[in-house]
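My current task is to audit a protein record that another person submitted. Thanks in advance; the entry in question is below:
***
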Amino acid sequence: MNQVLTGIGLESGGNSSTRQAHSFSVKVSASTVLRLIKKCSIPAITSPKIIGVDDWAFKKGRKYGTIIVDLETHRVIDLLPDREAKTLSTWLLEYPSIEIVSRDRSNTYAAAITEACPQAEQIADRWHILKNLSETVERFLDTQRLEIKETALKLSQQQHQNSVNEEISTDKSETLPIESQLQKPVFVGKYHDNLRIVAPFKSQRVTGERI
């Protein structure tokens, strides 16, 4: 049972774990769950090569630390008590195996990595790459506001004109059958009139030239 509660505690924390435990009729306090978590042995860090460094909140808006993740195993390998360059630099010196460090745009982290792991390649993480891209695009579009408005206006006018042309062509196509139907009896009548005129000549075998 302790192993089950420890597992729930590691996933959900103290208060959430007590609610989950109550759902299968186990009464336990948050302090008991936290005590079980503290008894867990911390796995040893085995020569990480690719790590991610970012800040995280002990208490949002008040106290922040540094989180370090092994990006090959996707597991948190350490939590540092603050965001100071010296603290991160001291930690990095213990692991010369590090080859790549993914980080945010913090100059503090950049300085610590450069000092402790000059051989490591520093890269921006995916979230900050997308943030940098969106900010750059936004700044560029701000300089093109007039052109964007003019282009949008031209496109709107063009679409309106196209719709008007389509309505006109549709109206014409709808009236054509009516006109042809009105003209058809006229041509048929003339055809029969011509047949009546030519009939006597046919009976007399008159050539076309004489007609």
Remarks:
- Residues 94 and 116 are 9 Å apart (CA to CA).
- The radius of gyration is 42 Å.
- The chain has a mean pLDDT of 82.
- The beta strands are 50-59, 63-70, 75-80, 100-103, 121-124.
